Amino acid sequence: NNDITKFDIDNLGRATDGYNGAEIEQAVITAMYESMDESRRMTDRDLYKTIAKMVPLSTTMSEAIKLIKRWADNRAVKAS
User: b vs e for 41-75, b when ≥16 Cβ sit within 10 Å of the residue's Cβ?
Assistant: First the structure.
């Protein structure tokens, strides 16, 4: 059982800037499995190690995201 108060949430938040919720969830799941495989509790270090191996969609798909935003600015009605 991992105690969330033991993690540095502010630094983890900065480390995952640009990641979406599903990517962060996958990083947590991967870190949990790796720590369980070693029969120990998950630590911040496990999360940072997993995050370092990932590239968020906001990076890999940045050009496509820019095109969609440009399209939406010209053709879609803003929500508010």
Answer: ebeeebbbebbeeeebeeeeeeeeeeeeeeeeeee
Q: Are 51 and 16 in contact (CB under 8 A)?
A: yes
CB 70 within 8 A of CB 34: no
The pTM of the full predicted model, rounded to 2 decimals, is 0.74
pLDDT at position 78: 81
Q: What is the pLDDT of residue 55?
A: 93
- What is the rounded distance in angstroms from the CA atom of residue 34 to the CA atom of residue 29? 9
Residue 18 structure tokens: 């640009």
**How far is residue 80's CA from residue 39's CA, in Å, rounded to a whole number?**
50
